[in-house]
Amino acid sequence: MNADFKIAIIGSGPAGLSAAGHCAKLGIPHILLESQDHVADTIYKYQKGKHVMAEPAVLGLRSPVSFAAGSRESILNQWNLEVTSLGVQIQHHAEVVGVTGQIGGFQIELASSEIISAEHVVLAIGLQGNLRTLGVAGDHLPGIQYQLDNPEEYQNETIIVWVRATPRSRMRWLWPRPVTTSSCSTAMKSSPAARTAI
């Protein structure tokens, strides 16, 4: 049975983009599978305007995709341009739920039930971190957030901030109290749902 692709890359962060960029540059039949509708989901979820570092600076990069420090927006824009200009074959909304097989014949199952075959698989899934939830009934109700993507969305709003420095420390509630969005480790919109959760 012939595989759909020579190489399937799972995840479109810096490693996945680099691998897919190399494939495209070398003319290798490939597919870059990304569960979201955009590349580099971890950086995409950074705060608006956040400066993204490119360290270590002494590491010689061989990727056709550029990696340089800059704002979240400038980096994502550059990567999108390069994905297009290099001809990277990317499939968005492609959440991988299973990989079976062996070298020369992998079967990649997507949440949509689509099966993609590839001779080789590159896992470039990374890790965004494990969000610590409130750990109480209702901690996933609407209005409760565990990530601060865009501080401007919270201007002139009262929010609850849950601070827990170490696993052994007690959680402290700062309510209501003006906070700067840059100091928030976990922010939730103040809402009846948030009050229900606490």
Oligomer: single chain
When the domains are counted, the total is 2
In terms of DSSP E residues, the strand content is 15-25%
Overall average pLDDT? 78
Number of strands: 11
Which CATH architecture of the largest domain? 3-Layer(bba) Sandwich
Assign the CATH topology of the largest domain: FAD/NAD(P)-binding domain
Q: How do the helices and strands follow one another from N- to C-terminus?
A: EHEHEEHEEEEEEEH
CATH class group of the largest domain: Alpha Beta
Query: Counting H and I runs of at least 4 residues, what is the number of helices?
Result: 4
Structural class, from secondary structure content? alpha/beta
Shape: globular
Distance between the termini: 56 Å
Q: What Rg is obtained from the alpha carbons, in whole angstroms? A: 20 Å
Sequence of strands across the biggest β-sheet: 5-2-1-8-7-6
Which spans have pLDDT < 50 for at least 5 consecutive residues?
A: 168-198
CATH superfamily of the largest domain: FAD/NAD(P)-binding domain
Tell me the helix content. 10-25%
| Biggest sheet layout | 6 strands, mixed
